[in-house]
Design brief:
The chain is of the alpha+beta class. The protein contains 16 helices and 20 strands.
């Protein structure tokens, strides 16, 4: 039995895992750097340890983290998402020191983290993949020849890429010649590997991903799909479960693909299989994320299954407590990533002190965050400060509830994407459930709200004007 877990992460996901540990009766241990000394995960965990003065490197120091887990008598490490969550060396280091890694094996992480190996595994399993190179490209000449054969536009991608990095669209040979060395350089700097491959670019696809759980006893189930089509520069903004764009036959097909993919690679624990859906109704495997996803709460909302708790139970060898037939979905859920960014200024990150924070409540409303009134958002990390998750029995009710919750949510002191999300909710194309990965680029008018002063700012301006007049 797992009695003590070290959480090798920070922010809202660390807080989320601390809460799961508390409900399971497990002691939680967190790490923090100097920039996170006053972070919420440090305040909420049972134990907290300073991991170093460097604001990023501390969360990436494999040996220091594993040694701390051993020194504090932890049974397991939960990597969360980002940082070391898909690092095979980290999983292997845990195994060598007798610490359970809450995730798949190092071998599976390495295989699925290599995009060309992942494509090959899916092809062998009979799962459709996007047309492209069978392996890594030797040079730009090979890329040009393949692009000519499959047709433009194409995508040059880093083999070890992720998070929207190391990826460029090319519409013609000249663009490919220019992009190829740039992607190679990005891949080398960001992932430590210069390998790249080529794929056909699917025009305006929908991004559909399937949550799976797999235990050590041969059981693999899916928890239905999420629609992550609403993105900006390959970064997800809003996630929906289930997809309002799929019919039941499509849903069954893509979920079957995901289960088959997990079985094909001997997957264990929680994972996500991501697909592109074209306008002819064809699904193409894109990648497998061998970790917990940022958007996992929408799946929890429609199924009632605590995915983090199941991760921990699977890691300690428990069989899944349900079969596929036991899993039912109910209603719709939506997650809004509230980032400390200024949409009217090209989404420039806005770091600083939170002067007031109010989390909305009411039926079907959940917030996962790591901020509080007085908290200072550091400039060293991702700009996401809170996730708003809403649930309702039907789509129209979800739209109304989401709008109410977004208006209730207050984050003062920094600019956020809350007004932008409200504009999205008012868009008729979105309200009808017709979204694809080009939605944001197709609707630049959604940032027009920035020319209108939000009510609180307008009220403050009026109050200041009145005060100035009274002084006169």
């Amino acid at each position: 039995m797992i009695r003590k877990i070290l959480i090798a992460n920070r922010g809202e996901i660390a807080v989320r895992i601390v809460r799961a540990c508390a409900e399971l009766g497990i002691t939680s241990v967190v790490i923090y750097t100097e920039a996170d000394r006053h972070a919420l995960h440090v305040k909420k965990a049972d134990e907290a340890y300073h991991i170093g003065p460097d604001s990023i490197a501390g969360y990436l120091n494999i040996h220091r983290i594993v040694n701390l887990a051993v020194a504090t008598a932890c049974d397991a490490i939960h990597p969360g998402y980002g940082f070391l969550s898909e690092n095979a060396d980290f999983a292997r280091a845990c195994e060598e020191r007798g610490i359970l890694f809450i995730g798949p094996t190092a071998e599976v992480i390495a295989r699925m983290g290599d995009k060309t190996q992942a494509r090959q595994a899916m092809m062998e399993a009979g799962i459709p993949v996007v047309p492209g190179s069978e392996g890594n490209l030797a040079d730009v000449d090979e890329a040009l020849a393949l692009a000519e054969a499959i047709g433009y536009p194409v995508m040059v991608k880093a083999t070890s890429g992720g998070g929207g990095r190391g990826i460029r669209r090319c519409d013609d040979p000249q663009a490919l010649r220019e992009a190829f060395p740039r992607v190679v350089s990005e891949a080398s700097k960001a992932f430590g590997r210069a390998e790249v491959f080529l794929e056909k670019f699917i025009e305006q696809p929908r991004h559909i991903e399937v949550q799976i759980l797999a235990d050590h006893h041969g059981h693999v189930v899916h928890l239905f799909e999420r629609d992550c089509s609403l993105q900006r520069r390959h970064q997800k903004l809003v996630e929906i479960a289930p997809s309002p764009q799929l019919d039941e036959a499509q849903r069954q097909r893509v979920c079957d693909y995901a289960v088959r993919a997990a079985r094909a690679v001997g997957y264990r624990n929680a994972g996500t299989v991501e697909f592109l859906l074209d306008h002819e109704g064809n699904f193409y495997f894109m990648e497998m994320n061998t970790r917990l996803q940022v958007e996992h709460p929408v799946t929890e909302a429609i199924t009632g299954i605590d995915i983090v708790a199941e991760q921990i139970r699977i890691a300690q060898g428990d069989p899944l407590p349900f079969s596929q037939e036991d899993i039912r979905r109910r209603g719709f859920a939506m997650e809004f990533r509230i980032n400390a960014e200024d949409p009217k200024n090209d989404f420039l990150p806005c770091f600083g002190r939170i002067t007031r924070y109010f989390a909305p409540g009411g039926p079907g409303t959940r917030t996962d965050g790591a901020i509080y009134t007085g908290y200072r958002i550091p400039p060293h990390y991702d700009s996401m400060c809170v996730k708003l998750i809403t649930w309702a029995l039907d789509w129209e009710q979800l739209l109304r509830r989401s709008r109410r919750a977004l208006k209730d949510l207050t984050v003062d002191g920094v600019r956020t994407t809350i007004p932008y999300h409200l504009e999205i909710l008012g868009n008729e194309e979105f309200r009808s459930g017709r979204i694809d990965t080009a939605f944001v680029e197709r609707h630049p008018e959604l940032v027009d709200y920035s020319t209108r002063r939000p009510p609180r700012e307008l009220a403050a301006a009026i109050a200041a004007a009145i005060a100035a007049h009274q002084r006169l």
